[in-house]
Amino acid sequence: MIDTAAACSREEYPGEELVLGLEPATLEQLIDVARFRRRIRLAPEVERHCARSREWLDDVIARMRAGEPVEAIYSVNTGFGSLAGRQAFPSADDAAELSRRLILADASGVGRIVDEEVVRATMFIRVVSLTQGYSAIQWALVEGLVAMLNADVWPAVPEYGSLGASGDLIPLAHIALVLTTAPDGSAEQENSGEAILHGRVVAGHEAMAAAGLTRIPVGAKDGLALLNGTSFSLAQTALAAWDVQGALHTAEVTACLSIEALLGFGDAFIAELHEARGHKGQIEVAERMRGYLHDSQLTTGDRDNDPQRQPPQDAYSLRCVPQVFGPIADTLDFAFGIIEREINAATDNPLVFPDLDRDLKAVSGGNFHAEYVAFAADFLSIAATEIGNITERRIFRLDDGTLNRGLPDMLVDSDQVGLDCGFMLPQYLAAALVSDCKTLAHPDSVDSIPTSANQEDHVSMANNAGRHLRQIVANTEVVVGVELLMSVQALELRLQAGRPDGSAVSAADLSTTAQKVSAMLRSTSDEQGKTIAHLTRDVVLYPQVRTAASLVKQRAVLSAARG
Predict the structure, then answer these.
(1) Model-level pTM?
(2) Which residues are tagged catalytic?
(3) 3-state helix, strand, coil in the chain (%, to 5)
(4) Smallest Cα–Cα separation from 98: which of 83, 116, 119?
(5) Does residue 1 carry a pLDDT above 60?
């Protein structure tokens, strides 16, 4: 099933086009191209840089055409995997045919067609990887991938098939089918793969024709250069990592709103407390939370003022947010480093190094092994699950009349107690999603199943790790969105209920952050076009929940809080 709603916006990226090859590509640039359709072009010097490895290969092919004996070169004149040592093909035409048959054989994926942004991110990473200059690929194929991105061609790539070693062979083959054709240039329309055009699945050649693009004949080594790399697993992990960061920073804001609504203590965020432990992420989270809460009159205690109630501490889901979110922030820093290095990595096999002193410039190794990507995805899956885990505990506390310091049960001031369920069920939803995350967060990188007659006897399962991470962060965005809805509702109820000691609360007592975020939410229409209003009686809540999750993903809460 195609999730056309998940396709990128058709609006053009508002900034200038991205020139690749001058500096290392960044995760933010990947997001711009994959999610917001930023156009790209290749710096002129990149072609010259890449030509050296191709020139060596072209010389090998010329020797084969001249009838000269040529040593066995993996993926050029030998089979793949366990078939590599069987024989060396004597014909240059066989070398090109080998590329084409590899693409055909590897396009065997099944499952849901992945979101357009995943395919775009994959093609972007493949372009950056190939332009490192070690892949000996035809330059026309690199330009072809760029043209597909700029023309919004969306190859239909199934989600299942990659093991995260030998590269993402199966998903990348589904892209290569659309881009390429037979070595003799024949149209070969029946082998053009599939693509999405105007919301429906069509043959790849039809999508390319609609975009005004010509499919490109493959030559020697082109097949493995296009297929053998970590690009698909990395695309999923990179997109999800960006969203984990957004969910984390948004959850810092919604946590502060809940802390205000629950009349929390400010002592837990005093700078000296966190500096005494010394962890960078914890210190920075506490600093941001102090900034959001600094002018709130609902919290009590800071470095200059004693707390007014005893004992001056809250439940862990309020008090320990920096200690939980801090390690998540540090894990993100670690994962971002891996992701950005991997975006700029040459990950196919063999790689060609023209400056080697030996005659055989093609070096067979294992850069296609995606253990780095699998670890990053697995670590982030654990981290993102913890965002949802602690956030759900605050949601539960907001609902519970014995824990929420004087607010109505289920955050609804009903005319008749029990007639309205209020926010009872969104907590159920959050609990279900968090439980799902806990199951999905089991590390995929510790699993391995041998393939290719035991030649490929250890794999990373990075694709599974990336898929699971994307689902975890999607779940977490909903949980944080639920806290957004409930914390704003709770703040409005606090204005009505006052403090447990009977003292009144006014809108001026709310932090500036709470006022801005509340105003943003209440001015937002849900997916049915209805304003997200204060809940006074039961209504259908799924449109609000979906919209709140979108606000988290779009970082709208952060924009409001920091604006």
Answers:
(1) 0.96
(2) 74
(3) 55, 5, 40
(4) 83
(5) no
